[in-house]
Amino acid sequence: MDASVEILSPYPVTLTPLVEMIVMSDTSKLEKLLIDKVGKKFVSSELCDRLTYSKDYSIEGIAGDYTPDIIVKPGTVEEVTEVVKIANQLNVPIYTWGGGTSMSGNPLAVERGIVLDMKRLNQVLDVDQDNLTITAQAGTTIENIFNAALEQGVFFAHHPESSLSSTIGGALSCMGISIYGAKYGYVYDQVLALEVILSNGKKIRIGGKAYLSLPTHNLLNLFLGAEGTLGIITEVTLKVYPKPPSRDRISYGFPDITSAIEACKSAHAAGCWPETVFLFDRRSLVQYMERAKTPIPDDVSMAVLFGASGSSEMVETTLEVISKCSEEQGGSRLPQELTQSWWNSINIGKDTFDQSNFAISHTEYEPDLVDACVPLSRFQEYSDFCDELKKEFGWVDIDFGAFIVGGPRGPIPFCIYFSVPIDTRIKTEVDKWFQFKERMYHRALEMGGSLSNANGLGLRSSPWVQNQLGSAWELLTDLKSMMDPNNILNRGNRGFSS
């Protein structure tokens, strides 16, 4: 029989002819098949288990019901393959779950089906000091990869604030920014090889330990940042680097966004290559200092945290040059106490978790992000637009402000985020959030900007993907149709629907 899959697109897309599909009206039949492959202990249709996987950290997850039909926890790549084969045969959607730290709704079971929890695939398989690589399974936490590298005298450059619980597979499914990204780039800049399970259960490997092991088209990029819509990542080989012998950091306050960005540009022109560049406006800095109550000078509107690594001489020289560039743009050196407190709030690991000054949770509101890129020259304009829009929506008493990240072009910022506190107990406030972010994303596109995949697109940003891609959306849907003809992989997410 032929089956058509409607995709949210102005273009008609018909998927390739399918084999006859079995309609699964009885979850118990699916559960039995999965238990036969994975074992009873690692398959559950209990409501309490399913509810655990019905939410992530997104407002979208709070606003909707994304309770899956069944949870599966494979322990081997072969078990992943068997689960995918069953899902494909029975036309059951499958949603890959890493650490559950997503803020965009990308692992949520939009059309119920199977949630595939990858956390049992959690082994660091190899640390190769000679070739500067580390190989790990997709369910390994980033913190474990980071520490496994350090134990062998090498350094893995991806370390987000969520590293204690986020997995490498989840990070690779979006762009993956990091506190070290200004020097080393995104998480997918660290990828040398992938093992991927396709929608038909076939296992493929792309790349290797050589730093150039892509003899033809870069097939890695089909799966990196794709949020599991084209294949399920099960194993990855990553770059590691010689461990820097020294690190230090400074921070500067500026009167506005433009002068802060100009200081970053000047540092780049001078040849500096810091590993950390975080820009916070005053409101965000106050939020991150919430627990420490670290005072912030009154004249600071925008602040930049610069971190350098290398030999002690290199670190000292780098920070001296950055200081000169910052002061030439009207910046003022911030107290070391604030610099250290700021660093503690973003450098969160098992040994530093209790030093974080960021308030981990709030009882009255839930912060969410507008995650967009605009041209550098329009950052200030976009920030001003956001401030005016917040006033229109009545969000002035609790305001988390904006923050900007530098990388992978050295200290030059690339992406601006606006954090908005939502009282998710009040439906009208949640509805307002959806209206607010729609206007913010439309404004970003009007300014020649882009949606950002830095924290994933998922349900949060994907409604505007087609607007940005235009005619290229048809190419993307054709790729999806070819690689996942039954549309089982993350069905209904990232702009695709059944």
> What is the CATH-assigned architecture of the largest domain?
3-Layer(aba) Sandwich
- End-to-end distance, in Å? 16 Å
Arrangement of strands in the largest sheet:
15-12-14-13-17-18-16-19
Estimated share of beta-strand residues: 15-25%
Label the structural class. Answer: alpha+beta
What is the CATH C level class of the largest domain, in words? Alpha Beta
Mean pLDDT across all amino acids? 87
Shape: globular
CATH homologous superfamily of the largest domain - what is it?
FAD-linked oxidases, C-terminal domain
How many helices in DSSP terms?
17
Kindly identify the CATH topology of the largest domain. Answer: Vanillyl-alcohol Oxidase, Chain A, domain 3
Q: What low-confidence regions span 5 or more consecutive residues with pLDDT below 50?
A: 1-25
- Helix content, binned percent: 25-40%
Query: How many domains make up the coordinates?
Result: 3
- What is the strand tally? 19
Q: What value does the Rg take, in angstroms?
A: 23 Å
Largest sheet: 8 strands, antiparallel
